[in-house]
């Protein structure tokens, strides 16, 4: 291919067969470890979405109610979230699967598989070391912290934004090597899709700039290269302008951050999420120890550009969650940052002693097996807990139907002692949406005009 360096031509020649094999391995691993939740019922915010589609899907097909469908599900006012890609994924699932949650799970697992594979490709392009790339993809696939984003349909926006985000960077790197406009166009389209999936994608132009600083510093000084970065900044400006027009906020918290804002709490909470399942608690002392370890790794592996990019990725992509409308810490917020975590860990454990090739290989095998085993065990345990939490939803709605098969339109039911959050790391059964779950239970009464939500 014209304009591609020898090393990049090697990538294009070698990746096909190995990538197909790795895709198969990722598929098997994901299916096995996510099997406990494959038949889990709807839960939390899912009821709000499927309730709306159940009653108003024909109207959407007729071109009506789209404004409500795209704007009224955030809980913070109309247009506070603008995520049409996420909304359309729900629409697709309902069109294909109806009210069968199995199909929704299959879609989420397929997206997670693609995200893990994209993480593998990104690592390969950044390192040109197949072993490191393979470990990065596997680590991302089995991280326990991904359970909420993958197993809960309401958090699918985090999977969608991560997939589009990584794809945009992949195409940008290919454009950097080949200078083909097609790759730049693909990167731009992926960035737009990421923006329309979730607001955390606003950090992508900065990641691209850091990539160029680390990998293409000479090219960064060229005027044409700066125009390329201005293109992505232009997309971001247009997006923010549209958001402001739709709703008089950019998506940040309506409560101004004050000097008393608990930064310590947030930093400890996110560090605990990133080191899961190695630690079950986080203190101020442990936080500084972890940050010190990261500093040591940066010094020891300072010649590895992917390590610097991974650390920058972790910090930058997690920043938007500190200013989100949900002023809380959720596991799903770490899905996109964990791409950087996977690259960082893979670079270190898959090639810990590059100066001692033979010994490094043996040490790498042991480290990789240990970390992957810890992650896989934690993921399976977490998915089992999530499935139990989901069953609470099913049991309550089934009992309501058995006791009250025909609820009058003015019925009011009061529940006590129903857990909202259960299990490790607060797996949600209803997530505060108990009323919506009752609405889904009485959906078959649509013909009578009765709506319970």
What report would you give on this structure?
The protein is mainly alpha-helical and 453 residues long. It has two domains: 6-387, no CATH class; 388-448, no CATH class. It is 67% helix and 1% strand. It contains 18 helices and two strands. It has helices at residues 6-33, 46-61, 66-71, 84-97, 101-127, 130-142, 147-151, 156-178, 181-195, 204-215, 217-220, 223-246, 263-275, 284-300, 305-322, 337-349, 357-403, 434-441; strands at residues 421-422, 427-428. The protein has a two-stranded antiparallel sheet. Residues 253-259 and 429-453 have low confidence and may be disordered.
Write the layout of secondary structure elements.
Layout: H1 6-33, H2 46-61, H3 66-71, H4 84-97, H5 101-127, H6 130-142, H7 147-151, H8 156-178, H9 181-195, H10 204-215, H11 217-220, H12 223-246, H13 263-275, H14 284-300, H15 305-322, H16 337-349, H17 357-403, E1 421-422, E2 427-428, H18 434-441
Antiparallel strand pairs: 1-2
Tag the structure with descriptive keywords.
453 residues; mainly alpha; 2 domains; two-stranded antiparallel sheet; 18 helices; globular; disordered C terminus
């Amino acid at each position: 291919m014209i304009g591609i360096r020898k090393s990049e031509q090697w990538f294009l020649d070698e990746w096909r067969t190995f990538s197909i094999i790795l895709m198969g391995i990722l598929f098997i691993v994901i299916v096995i470890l996510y099997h406990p939740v494959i038949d889990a019922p709807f839960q939390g915010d899912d009821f709000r979405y499927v309730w709306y589609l159940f009653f108003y899907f024909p109207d959407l097909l007729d071109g009506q109610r789209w404004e409500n469908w795209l704007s009224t599900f955030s809980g913070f006012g109309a247009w506070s979230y603008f995520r049409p890609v996420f909304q359309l994924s729900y629409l697709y699932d309902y069109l294909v699967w109806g009210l069968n949650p199995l199909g929704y799970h299959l879609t989420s697992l397929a997206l997670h598989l693609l995200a893990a594979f994209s993480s593998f490709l990104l690592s390969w392009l950044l390192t040109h070391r197949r072993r490191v790339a393979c470990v990065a993809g596997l680590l991302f696939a089995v991280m326990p912290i991904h359970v909420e984003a993958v197993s809960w349909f309401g958090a699918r926006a985090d999977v969608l934004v991560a997939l589009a985000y990584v794809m945009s960077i992949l195409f940008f790197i290919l454009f950097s090597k080949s200078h083909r406009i097609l790759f730049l166009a693909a990167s731009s389209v992926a960035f737009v899709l990421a923006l329309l999936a979730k607001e955390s994608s606003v950090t992508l132009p900065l990641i691209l700039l850091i990539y160029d600083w680390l990998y293409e510093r000479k090219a960064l000084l060229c005027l044409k290269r700066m125009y390329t970065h201005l293109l992505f900044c232009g997309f971001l400006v247009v997006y923010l302008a549209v958001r402001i027009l739709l709703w008089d906020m950019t998506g940040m918290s309506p409560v101004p951050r004050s000097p008393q804002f608990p930064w310590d709490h947030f930093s400890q909470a996110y560090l605990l999420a990133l080191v899961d399942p190695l630690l079950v608690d986080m203190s101020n002392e442990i936080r500084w120890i972890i940050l010190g370890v990261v500093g040591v790794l940066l010094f020891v592996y300072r010649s590895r550009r992917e390590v610097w990019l991974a650390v920058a990725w972790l910090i930058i992509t997690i920043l938007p969650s500190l200013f989100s409308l949900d002023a809380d810490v959720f596991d799903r917020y770490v899905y996109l940052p964990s791409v950087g975590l996977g690259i960082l860990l893979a670079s270190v454990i898959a090639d810990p002693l590059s100066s001692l090739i033979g010994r490094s290989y043996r040490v790498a095998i042991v480290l990789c097996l240990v970390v992957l085993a810890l992650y896989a065990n934690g993921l399976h345990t977490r998915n089992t807990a999530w499935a139990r939490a989901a069953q609470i939803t099913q049991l309550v709605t089934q009992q309501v139907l058995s006791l009250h098969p025909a609820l009058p339109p003015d019925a009011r039911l009061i529940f006590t002692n129903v857990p909202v959050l259960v299990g490790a790391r607060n797996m949600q059964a209803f997530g505060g949406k108990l009323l919506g779950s009752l609405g889904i239970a009485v959906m078959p009464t649509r013909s009578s005009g009765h709506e319970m939500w």
